[in-house]
Design brief:
Distance between the termini: 17 Å
CATH topology: Phosphatase 2c, domain 1
Number of domains: 1
Low-confidence stretches: none
CATH architecture: 4-Layer Sandwich
């Protein structure tokens, strides 16, 4: 498997509240995480950093090898981390109201888990076609699902950044997760909304299909988001999977 990731402050924000990490457990299973912090001052940066660091460290101690075990681990560790971030926010006034989105991929020899909370996304490029595997937990996506706005209206809605689920905001939260069988040449994209609010899915697909390195693809996507305005921090994580032969 090959990986590359890059995070960028963008053109508007004063600091980067995105966090990113890549980890391996005792059995060689891989975990990729992108988190997009929310909250005033630098509180979002604290929340996203906590989520990535804590989940990564705990993952490195595990020995599980199956996707069923991975899904159970994710559910448990996310609930614990939610309480940890809440407790930290309540202990320090300047961290009050902090939270973070989360999108992660657990990579097994013949499958992968894609999981998310909030509006950071996970995509799969397979046989030349890009598909979004995660669903945004956002106010605008709820309107879209109810048919109250069109996809084009959703793209430019004034409340586009209002998320309905995150880590650290409420006592109850839940991560969406699903296991997918992997194929040779699958390419996974994890990203914060600083990319997807600036770059269309068609543009994402075109870049991912280019004949260049994963690092170059990451840089191209960051550049496109900045050229489109770079209104938020931008994080891109690419994983090229090689499925083990049966």
């Amino acid at each position: 498997m090959q990986i590359a990731y890059k995070t960028d402050i963008g053109q508007v924000r004063q600091n980067n509240e995105d966090s990113v990490g890549y980890f391996e457990n005792q059995a060689g299973i891989k975990l990729a995480i992108v988190a997009d912090g929310v909250g005033g001052h630098q509180a979002g940066e604290v929340a996203s950093g906590m989520a990535v660091t804590h989940l990564g460290y705990q993952f490195e101690q595990t020995t599980f090898t199956t996707s069923q075990e991975g899904e159970a681990w994710l559910k448990t560790v996310v609930m614990v981390e939610n309480q940890t971030i809440l407790a930290k926010a309540h202990s320090y006034q300047d961290l009050s109201g902090m939270g973070t989105t989360l999108v992660c991929a657990l990579i097994f020899p013949k499958s992968f888990i894609m999981a998310n909370i909030g509006d950071s996304r996970g995509y799969l490029l397979r046989q030349g076609k890009l598909s979004q595997l995660t669903e945004d937990h956002s106010f605008v996506n709820e309107l879209l699902k109810r048919g109250e706005i069109s996809p084009s209206e959703a793209q430019h809605h004034p409340q586009k950044n209002l998320i309905t689920r995150s880590l650290g905001i409420s006592k109850q939260t839940e991560i969406d997760e699903k296991t997918f069988p992997s194929q040779n040449d699958d390419l996974l994209l994890l990203c914060s909304d600083g990319l997807t609010n600036m770059v269309s899915d068609d543009e994402l697909q075109a870049v991912l299909l280019q004949d260049n390195s994963l690092t170059e693809k990451c840089q191209t996507l960051i550049t496109l988001a900045n050229q489109a305005g770079g209104r938020d921090n931008i994080t891109v994580f690419l994983l090229a999977l090689d499925r083990e032969v049966e």
